[in-house]
Amino acid sequence: MMKSTKFAVAFLALMSPMASGTGFIAHAQTDLERGTEIENFCTNLADKVRESRFQRQKAELEMLRDDIEKRVSYAEEKVSELKEWVRQREEFSNQATQVIVDVYASMRPRGAAERMQEINPNLASAVLLKLKPRAAAAILNEMDKSAAARITQIMAAVAESPTSGANL
């Protein structure tokens, strides 16, 4: 019997606001207003979160753009260096026209060596590069050691890649 009494008291306590009618409606309106406040808060917060995410993504994109611009600038610089290297190589190669090559090819190695030691080492190197290897070797063999070494260094530099830093 004791249990049913406690139950009845609890039931009456819960029902008392409902019995009056206005208490229950007031409770429902308060809950509804709280729900609207929460919804407004979440909506306002979502806008701030969206804006924050947008700003972070914008900053990341700007950093990526700057990185790409640096890489493009570096690539353009390298292309310019390569073009200059090709220009220098063509200029060097053009120094030895076929006529000069034919003249030195028809000379005896000793005479060709003596004359090549007296001309610009770049021109001598260009001529030797255009000669047949056997003829170029014979001429270098007749040259004095220091002149042959200097001309050989120039010839080797021409054969190097532009990225190794060789400049003519």
Written account of the structure:
The chain is 86% helix and 0% strand. The protein has helices at residues 2-20, 22-95, 98-106, 109-116, 121-130, 133-142, 145-159. Helix 2 crosses helix 5 (121-130) and helix 4 (109-116) crosses helix 6 (133-142). With 168 residues, the protein is mostly helical. It is built from 7 helices and no strands. The longest helix has 74 residues, at 22-95. The termini are far apart.
Summarize the model shown:
The chain has 168 residues and is mostly helical. It has helices spanning 2-20, 22-95, 98-106, 109-116, 121-130, 133-142, 145-159.
Protein topology:
Blueprint: H1 2-20, H2 22-95, H3 98-106, H4 109-116, H5 121-130, H6 133-142, H7 145-159
Helix pairs in contact: 1-2, 2-5, 4-6, 5-7
Which geometry do the CA atoms define?
Answer: rod-shaped
Helical stretch count? Answer: 7
For the secondary structure, the number of strands is: 0
SS class = mainly alpha
Uncertain residue segments = 163-168
Strand content: under 5%
Overall pLDDT confidence:
80
Q: What order do the helices and strands follow?
A: HHHHHHH
The helix fraction, in percent, is over 70%
What is the terminal separation in angstroms? 114 Å
What kind of sheet is the major sheet? none
| CA gyration radius, whole angstroms | 46 Å
Q: What descriptive keywords fit this protein?
A:
168 residues, rod-shaped, mainly alpha, disordered C terminus
